[in-house]
């Protein structure tokens, strides 16, 4: 059985770990590898490597850092397919979708290649006679990233390219369910010329995470995962004085107005609900039809959902792969049963799906519920599977109120041909990322990604300008160079201009 090791100080390492977790192939149900689970000593080894690398890396010139970033960008581009296949084999998503994930991560690397521009400070000449004021930003030190299973390349890349470009050193604790892609990323950083110890990978579960949160030498933590863990990470890491951004779970609504093109909206709803088997934090899991849009939308969505081709991620004809584990399959199937019991109308039932030749895979087919109400478990739970729930609202304002009553505020979308309705929606909805006829409005790398309410703990969104601010702290210098013609004029009152 293959063992997936940590990456510490520029090389694969066991760091004394003895316990492991199984890594499955979700399409076959095969136990394909074991991943090491670090204990606190293992985490300490990774943090020590990062701490030792920080003085030199933080002093590396912007040109030297940019050179490494451009080389890394090139290597990720060249290894995109290999990364996508690793994702498909451990996560289960189809290779074309995984390639899209790598591309969105690559865009953050490209953003970070512009670090000389992004780190420019400010300068104010002659704020008082002979006095200038200027600001610049410095890295924090060792920063850590703790990431979920659903985007094993893209989500870590929301973090490490920006953190490293800013002059920090990095410890990544990826999801223990699909850890291999992070090891290839580590090798690519190394090949790009990144000094040993600047990027480290430590695998593990709660024990490793807690060791990171409590470690005195970790200055900041970026987390992406479910809401209960995000809340916990924020509380525990801020208690030890760390800077924290913790992005949580979601229940993303898309509203469909009667003036929307039903074919366009239903195509996009099905793709946004079932793509990646619904295991996306920006997946649309609740469609809210307004007025008399409902019946036509449900009929079109059910028809299209039933035709989604489900199969292994490596099969190019597959549109949707399996879910991550047998436990996830059973949980999702259980929730579908609860939805029926609680009175929702099951328009398409994905339970019990089998894929010929892949009998032991973790399959759940596309599922659509109509007549869902806000008290049902299929609405209140983040199902994180290929399940679309359809709710009905009488007016746009009622649909906006419904969205705003939900505790999450990650992403949302509106399908309409009315500019004024779209504008009312974008202004009224309490959600961080909004799509207008765009179902999965993930911001480009040069904007920042983040939700509101229970989808984010901490102030900072991730990547883009807020990412640069998160991974740096500012200094403001007030400077005077007295000349012999102007003798010292120190004064005891509070300085003003
Ligand atoms: P998760 O919260 O179970 O795990 C995330 C990370 O936390 C993993 O590295 C895991 O090892 C660690 N972890 C798990 N349990 C822990 C515990 N008790 N104590 C400390 N650490 C723990 O999430 P997941 O199942 O891997 O990913 C799916 C979730 O992530 C969904 O809720 C999804 O919405 C969310 N997500 C959010 C975003 C976003 O941008 N807001 C993006 C991707 C995924």
TrEMBL record:
Key words, A-Z: NAD, Oxidoreductase
Domain of life assignment: Bacteria
Enzyme class at the top of the EC tree: oxidoreductase
GO biological processes: L-valine catabolic process; thymine catabolic process
Domain Aldehyde dehydrogenase: 17-477
EC id: 1.2.1.27
Pfam families with a match to the protein in the record: Aldedh
GO molecular function: methylmalonate-semialdehyde dehydrogenase (acylating, NAD) activity
Name used for this protein in its record: methylmalonate-semialdehyde dehydrogenase (CoA acylating)
Organismal lineage: Bacteria, Bacillati, Actinomycetota, Actinomycetes, Jiangellales
């Amino acid at each position: 059985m293959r063992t997936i090791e940590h990456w510490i100080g520029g090389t694969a390492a066991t760091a004394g770990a003895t316990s492991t977790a199984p890594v499955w192939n979700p399409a076959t149900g095969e136990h394909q590898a074991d991943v090491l689970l670090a204990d606190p000593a293992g985490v300490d080894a990774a943090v020590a490597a990062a701490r030792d690398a920080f003085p030199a890396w933080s002093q590396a010139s912007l040109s030297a850092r940019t050179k490494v970033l451009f080389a890394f960008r090139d290597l990720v581009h060249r290894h995109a397919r290999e990364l996508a296949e690793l994702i498909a084999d451990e996560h289960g998503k189809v290779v074309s979708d995984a390639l899209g994930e790598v591309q969105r991560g690559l865009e953050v690397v490209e953003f970070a290649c512009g670090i000389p521009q992004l780190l420019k400070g400010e300068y104010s000449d002659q704020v008082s006679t002979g006095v200038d004021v200027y600001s610049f930003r410095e890295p924090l030190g060792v920063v850590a990233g703790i990431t979920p299973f659903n985007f094993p390349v893209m989500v870590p890349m929301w973090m490490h390219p920006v953190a490293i470009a800013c002059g920090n050193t990095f410890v990544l604790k990826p999801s223990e369910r699909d850890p291999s892609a992070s090891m290839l990323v580590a090798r690519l950083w190394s090949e790009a010329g990144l000094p040993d110890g600047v990027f480290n990978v430590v695998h593990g579960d709660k024990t490793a995470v807690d060791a990171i949160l409590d470690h005195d030498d970790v200055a900041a933590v970026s987390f992406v995962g479910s809401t209960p863990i995000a809340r916990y990470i924020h509380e525990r890491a801020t208690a030890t004085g760390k800077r924290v951004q913790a992005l949580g779970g979601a229940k993303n609504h898309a509203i469909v107005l009667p003036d929307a093109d039903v074919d366009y909206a239903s195509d996009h709803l099905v793709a946004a609900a079932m793509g990646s088997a619904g295991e996306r934090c920006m997946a649309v899991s609740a469609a809210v039809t307004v007025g008399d849009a409902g019946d036509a939308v449900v009929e079109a969505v059910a028809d299209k959902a039933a035709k989604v081709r489900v199969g292994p991620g490596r099969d190019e004809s597959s549109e949707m792969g399996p879910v991550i584990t047998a436990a996830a399959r059973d949980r999702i199937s259980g929730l579908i049963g609860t939805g029926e019991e609680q009175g929702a109308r099951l328009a398409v039932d994905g339970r019990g799906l089998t894929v010929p030749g892949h009998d032991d895979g973790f399959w759940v087919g596309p599922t659509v519920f109509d007549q869902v109400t806000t008290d049902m478990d299929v609405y209140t739970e983040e199902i994180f599977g290929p399940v679309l729930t359809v709710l009905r609202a009488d007016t746009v304002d009622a649909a906006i109120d419904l969205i705003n009553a939900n505790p999450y505020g990650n992403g949302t979308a509106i399908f309409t041909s009315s500019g004024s309705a779209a504008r009312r929606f974008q202004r009224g909805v309490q959600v961080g990322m909004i799509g207008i006829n765009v179902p999965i409005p993930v911001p480009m790398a040069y904007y920042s990604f983040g939700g509101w309410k229970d989808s984010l703990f901490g102030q900072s969104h991730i990547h883009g300008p807020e990412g640069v601010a998160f991974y740096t702290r500012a200094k403001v210098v007030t400077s005077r160079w007295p000349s012999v013609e102007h003798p010292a004029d120190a004064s005891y009152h509070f300085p003003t201009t």
